[in-house]
Write a sequence for this structure.
């Protein structure tokens, strides 16, 4: 009988605590969520998202030579050259998924052995 007097109130408190925690997690903070989504979209517009293929990183003269050669061989693909101290980087393409970038990488791997897929906002 004394065990029942202890267990019943304990279970009642547990049930109340679980239902209270569940109801708190169901509250909608719509303004905060909408604000975060808007910030994320603005960030993606400015910095971009997706993947590129990096063909080379190293000296400026070789990077410019590789960039020119790539533009001649593959005229329809966007090319970019960036300087991030102490190296120059040649990046190509704008791919939404890593799978698309990996497929394109297969075309370039024979001619550019050091080519790798990187996220757009890196490098």
């Amino acid at each position: 009988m004394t065990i029942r007097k202890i267990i019943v109130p304990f279970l009642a408190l547990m049930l109340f605590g679980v239902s209270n925690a569940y109801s708190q997690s169901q509250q909608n903070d719509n303004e905060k969520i909408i604000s975060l989504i808007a910030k994320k979209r603005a960030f993606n517009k400015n910095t971009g998202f997706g993947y590129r293929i990096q063909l080379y990183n190293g000296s400026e003269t070789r990077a410019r030579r590789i960039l020119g050669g790539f533009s001649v061989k593959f005229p329809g693909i966007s090319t970019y050259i960036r300087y991030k101290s102490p190296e120059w980087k040649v990046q190509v393409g704008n791919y939404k998924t890593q799978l698309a970038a990996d497929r394109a990488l297969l075309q370039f791997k024979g001619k550019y052995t050091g080519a790798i897929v990187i996220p757009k906002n890196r490098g």
